[in-house]
Design goal:
Number of strands: 7
Order of helices and strands: HEHEEHEEHEE
Strand order of the largest sheet: 2-4-5-7-6
Structural class: alpha+beta
Distance between the termini: 32 Å
Length: 191
């Protein structure tokens, strides 16, 4: 199973590298198809936590809608967010990943028109995000780990945000109420 996971991760990395190269050259067009995002989430949860003391518990609403996405790009989004959650928890603990259908009303989510969406939510149990940094975390080169300069580029969440927006989706970050940790919430339009 680990060899298959490594082979799958290698294929995804190759596809992502090609797409990031095209993106950097200004070619934002990408092949989108109707996809069951739950399968991508389950695979990423298993692969991104392998060999760590972190577990990613996945909850998927029954009757989940499909979304029109670029599979490789959304795998990268999911992988980045699981890995960020692992780092926030010092590679130990439980990440919760929830995938559900939602109907958003105009004005309910900033910048998102009313309609039907898939909501992907990641909840970690780390320290959370300081209030002064909540508005910065999706900016290019932002990193909250200055003590490990050079290890983290500060591009991960910015790339995630750009990929989500290429899919006409939204991404927001919050702190958990009454508990330590952060919540990242993504909305992708239903196919």
């Amino acid at each position: 199973a680990r060899i298959n996971d490594a082979m799958q991760a290698s294929k995804e990395a190759t596809g992502l590298a090609s797409q990031l190269l095209a993106y950097s050259r200004g070619n934002n067009e990408s092949k989108k198809e109707e996809v069951d995002v739950s399968a991508l989430l389950k695979d990423a949860a298993r692969i991104c936590t392998a060999g760590s003391k972190t577990r990613c518990d996945v909850t998927i609403e029954e009757g989940l809608w499909l979304s029109l996405i670029n599979r490789t790009q959304i795998i990268q989004v999911i992988n980045n967010l699981i890995i960020n959650a692992r780092h926030a928890m010092d590679d130990e603990g439980v990440i919760k990943a929830n995938l559900s259908n939602v109907e958003i009303i105009e004005g309910e989510v900033n910048g998102v028109p009313s309609g039907k969406y898939l909501r992907l939510t990641f909840i970690d149990h780390g320290k959370g995000i300081s209030k002064s940094n909540l508005s910065k975390i999706f900016k290019r080169f932002y990193s909250n780990r200055p003590d490990k300069f050079g290890e983290h580029s500060g591009l991960g969440l910015n790339i995630v945000k750009n990929l989500v927006e290429l899919h006409e989706g939204s991404i927001n970050a919050f702190n958990r109420e009454n508990n330590p940790g952060a919540i990242i919430e993504i909305n992708f339009p239903k196919a």
